[in-house]
Amino acid sequence: MTQHDHEPLEPRAVSRRRLLGTVGAAGLAVGATGGAVASAAVRDEPPTALTSLGATRVPFHGTHQAGILTPQQAHGHLAAFDLAPGAGRKQAAALLRRWSATARELMEGEAQGGGRDTGIALDAGPSSLTVTFGFGRAFFSRTGLTDQLPTELAPLPEFSADALDKDRSDGELWVQIGANDALVAFHALRALQREAGETAKLRWQMNGFNRSPGATSHPMTVRNLMGQVDGSNNPKPGEKDFDARVFVPASGTPAWMAHGSYAVVRRIRMLLDDWDKKSLAEQERVIGRRKSDGAPLTGGSEDTEPDLDKRSADGSPVIAADAHVRVTSPDTNGGAAMLRRPFSYHDGFRDDGAPDAGLLFIAWQADPLRGFVPVQRKLDRGDALSRFTRHEASALFAVPGGPGKGEYVGQRLLEG
Ligand SMILES: C=CC1=C(C)c2cc3[nH]c(cc4nc(cc5[nH]c(cc1n2)c(C)c5CCC(=O)O)C(CCC(=O)O)=C4C)c(C)c3C=C
Ligand SMILES: [Fe+2]
C-alpha cells in the first residue's frame, strides 16, 4: 500500500461561489459539478480537474489534524512564527482561534470570512488543502504554560554532521500547508500570515513540492530529487503498531496532546552534483533499493520487506552494511519508526552552480526519542546516503489532536 491509500478523501462538488469564477455565464444554468463539466466541454478541455483534483476536500475536524495521514500533496509551505513582544497566552489563543476558523473555511473551499479574502484561489476547489498547526518548545515559556510542556519536546540532540542555520530552525508556532494546487496553497499561507498580524512574526518559511496527482498512470509512492521512490516502507494505517508509533494515545500526557503527534522538520540539502555522477548501481547500493521501482535489492517488489540477512555468492550482504535502508530499519533500531511525509524543495542555484535543493523532511511520531532521534544518531555516524546530504535546519513541534466541531486547534492547551 502506498501513502496514497492512507486516508479516504471526500471529492465533492465545489461551492457556487467558487463555480462563478470558473464557468462564467455558460455554466450557470446547471448544477455545480455539472456546470464545471459543461463549461469544460464548451472550452474543449478535459473535464477532470475541478471534479477530482480541485474538488477533493479534506475535513478540518477529526481525531487527528489533517496533513498527517493525508496523501502527500503537490504543493507545500512550512512556516514558523514567534509571538511578538508583549503577546502572551491570551493573544496566542485568539490567534489560534482565527487561524483555525480560516483553515476550516479554506479547507472547505469557502472564501476567508470577514471580507478578508484576497481572491487568490477564487476559481479553485479546495484541492485537498490541509493546514496543520504545531507548538515549539519556546511557546510554553512565552505563554506561561511550562507546566504543560511535553517531555517529548526536549530539544533534539546536536548531531555531529549538522550545519544548522539557527534563523531557519525552531519557532514557537508552526504551520504546515499542503494542497494540490499552487494558488490554493499560497492563498492559505498568505491568509494565515496576514492573520498573524501584530501577534506573531514570521521566523522562517520554506516552500516544497511533490508529484501532482494524475501525473503517473497509477497512484505511486512519490520520488525525491535524487530520483528514488521515497516512502515505501513507511508505517501504514491499519498495521498493528501504527497508532502507537505515530500518535499520542487518548490517555497520553499531557492530556491536551491526546491523539496528537510530534513533527521533526529537517531541511536536508542534497549534494545533487555529486549524486548524479554516481552510476545507477552505486546509487542503488547507497539506498539498498532499486531506483526504477523501489524494490529492495534482495528482490520482490516495492512492498517486499528488505531481507537484511541475504548474502551474495561471495558472502557479502546484498544490502550493504551502510545502506540507508539497513541503517534506518526498525529492525536495527530497536523498533524505532516514524511516518515520513516530506516535500522536495528547490531554492535556485548556489554560487558554485549546484542546486540549492533537497528534502523538507517531516517525520511524525508519538515520541521523537523512540522515532527520529535514535535513527538520526545512527545516520550521523555515517550511512552511505549521508555523504550526499547536509542537514541545514531543524525544528521539533508538538502537534495536538484534531479539533472537534466548534473547537480551535490548541484550545485544550490554551484554555485547559
Ligand atoms: C532520521 C531519519 C531519516 C532521515 C533524516 C532520512 C533522510 C533521507 N532519506 C532519504 C531517502 C530514503 N529513505 C528511505 C527509507 C527510510 N528512511 C528513514 C529515515 C530517515 N531518512 C527510514 C526510517 C526509512 C525506512 C527504513 C525501512 O523501514 O526500511 C528510502 C527507501 C524507501 C522507503 O522506505 O522510503 C529512501 C529512498 C533521503 C533522500 C533522505 C535525505 C535527504
Ligand atoms: Fe530515509
From TrEMBL:
<dbReference type="InterPro" id="IPR011008">
    <property type="entry name" value="Dimeric_a/b-barrel"/>
</dbReference>
<dbReference type="InterPro" id="IPR006313">
    <property type="entry name" value="EfeB/EfeN"/>
</dbReference>
<dbReference type="Pfam" id="PF04261">
    <property type="entry name" value="Dyp_perox_N"/>
</dbReference>
<dbReference type="GO" id="GO:0046872">
    <property type="term" value="F:metal ion binding"/>
</dbReference>
<protein>
    <recommendedName>
        <fullName>Deferrochelatase</fullName>
        <ecNumber>1.11.1.-</ecNumber>
    </recommendedName>
</protein>
<feature type="region of interest" description="Disordered">
    <location>
        <begin position="286"/>
        <end position="314"/>
    </location>
</feature>
<dbReference type="GO" id="GO:0030313">
    <property type="term" value="C:cell envelope"/>
</dbReference>
<dbReference type="GO" id="GO:0020037">
    <property type="term" value="F:heme binding"/>
</dbReference>
<dbReference type="GO" id="GO:0005829">
    <property type="term" value="C:cytosol"/>
</dbReference>
<comment type="function">
    <text>Involved in the recovery of exogenous heme iron. Extracts iron from heme while preserving the protoporphyrin ring intact.</text>
</comment>
<dbReference type="InterPro" id="IPR006314">
    <property type="entry name" value="Dyp_peroxidase"/>
</dbReference>
<keyword id="KW-0349">Heme</keyword>
<dbReference type="GO" id="GO:0004325">
    <property type="term" value="F:ferrochelatase activity"/>
</dbReference>
<comment type="similarity">
    <text>Belongs to the DyP-type peroxidase family.</text>
</comment>
<feature type="domain" description="Dyp-type peroxidase N-terminal">
    <location>
        <begin position="65"/>
        <end position="210"/>
    </location>
</feature>
<feature type="domain" description="Dyp-type peroxidase C-terminal">
    <location>
        <begin position="222"/>
        <end position="402"/>
    </location>
</feature>
<keyword id="KW-0479">Metal-binding</keyword>
<dbReference type="InterPro" id="IPR048328">
    <property type="entry name" value="Dyp_perox_C"/>
</dbReference>
<dbReference type="InterPro" id="IPR006311">
    <property type="entry name" value="TAT_signal"/>
</dbReference>
<dbReference type="Pfam" id="PF20628">
    <property type="entry name" value="Dyp_perox_C"/>
</dbReference>
<keyword id="KW-0560">Oxidoreductase</keyword>
<dbReference type="InterPro" id="IPR048327">
    <property type="entry name" value="Dyp_perox_N"/>
</dbReference>
<keyword id="KW-0408">Iron</keyword>
<dbReference type="GO" id="GO:0033212">
    <property type="term" value="P:iron import into cell"/>
</dbReference>
<keyword id="KW-0732">Signal</keyword>
<keyword id="KW-0456">Lyase</keyword>
<keyword id="KW-0575">Peroxidase</keyword>
<dbReference type="GO" id="GO:0004601">
    <property type="term" value="F:peroxidase activity"/>
</dbReference>
